[in-house]
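User: Let's play a game. I give you a shape written as tokens, and you guess the letters that built it. Ready? Here's round one.
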């Protein structure tokens, strides 16, 4: 298998958004730069890369009809080989988490379970977006639990953490819902539901920023929200004018690349020091540039 086929199989641009989840979760949990964070970052990358490879294994027959250039139908790698690679990546991520902090194996195991459920059971059905949203929430939770020395009462999830987890899951659910018809182009009905959901998501963050945050945290959160919707304006405008496969794919790709900004919001909601929270914006850069050469969706 060539490097190009490997990066295409694992959808390499998405790895950095997964690392951003771990970074945000670790700082929300009170951690700072450490070897545990480094191991967690690589584990997060391995988990999503393994999940993406497993997605192609599950979709091999569909891809043969709809995406014949994908690594498996094009013959760049066999389905069995892709399955072995996926399991190796998921196992490697689990080992790294176990070394960093065994407590984090609980959300990591939940993440792997959600990956399997999405790829082989729920994909295409009404629970598909929910299971995919749960994947990202578990990823963020893994970063948080990496900082724990003992399992705290009430799972250690306060209002800010709970809102961050639900917000990230909801955002990914919307992306997954829209991406369901990416190949054919989204329907007008699906588009209306998606736009309504995205509007409610934005209003939720605006309300949280105004009523739950104070001072610079509220200001920066509103600024990040404005940046997210400014970045989505052009693809959403094109999608609303013509919900074609091309415009659907561009919107989905744009939303995936903006995940690090959602993580910045999560950190601000939990009063992470502003410089460290804003440093999370840098996670958007590698995904953006690599995304020019490899698909994220």
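Assistant: Ready! My guess for every position:
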């Amino acid at each position: 298998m060539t490097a190009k086929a490997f990066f295409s199989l694992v959808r390499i641009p998405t790895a950095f958004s997964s690392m951003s989840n771990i970074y945000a979760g670790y700082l929300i949990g009170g951690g700072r730069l450490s070897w545990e964070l480094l191991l967690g970052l690589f584990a997060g990358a391995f988990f999503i890369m393994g999940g993406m490879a497993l997605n192609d294994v599950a979709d091999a027959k569909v891809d043969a009809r709809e995406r014949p250039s994908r690594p498996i139908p094009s013959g760049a790698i066999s389905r069995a080989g892709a399955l072995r690679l996926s399991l190796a990546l998921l196992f490697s991520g689990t080992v790294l988490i176990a070394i960093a902090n065994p407590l984090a194996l609980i959300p990591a195991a939940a993440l792997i379970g959600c990956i399997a459920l999405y790829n082989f059971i729920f994909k295409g059905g009404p629970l598909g977006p929910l299971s995919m949203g749960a994947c990202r929430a578990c990823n963020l939770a893994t970063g948080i639990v990496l900082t724990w020395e003992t399992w705290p009462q009430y799972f250690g999830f306060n209002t800010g953490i709970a809102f961050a987890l639900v917000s990230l899951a909801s955002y990914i659910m919307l992306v997954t819902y829209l991406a369901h018809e990416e190949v054919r182009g989204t329907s007008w009905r699906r588009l209306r539901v998606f736009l309504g959901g995205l509007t409610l998501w934005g209003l939720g963050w605006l309300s949280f920023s105004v009523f739950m945050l104070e001072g610079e945290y509220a200001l920066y959160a509103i600024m990040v929200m404005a940046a997210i919707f400014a970045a989505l304006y052009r693809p959403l405008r094109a999608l609303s004018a013509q919900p074609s496969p091309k415009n659907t794919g561009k919107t989905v790709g744009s939303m995936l690349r903006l995940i690090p900004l959602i993580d910045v919001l999560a950190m601000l909601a939990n009063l992470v020091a502003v410089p460290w929270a804003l440093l999370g914006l840098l996670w958007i850069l590698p995904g953006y540039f690599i995304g020019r050469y490899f698909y994220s969706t």
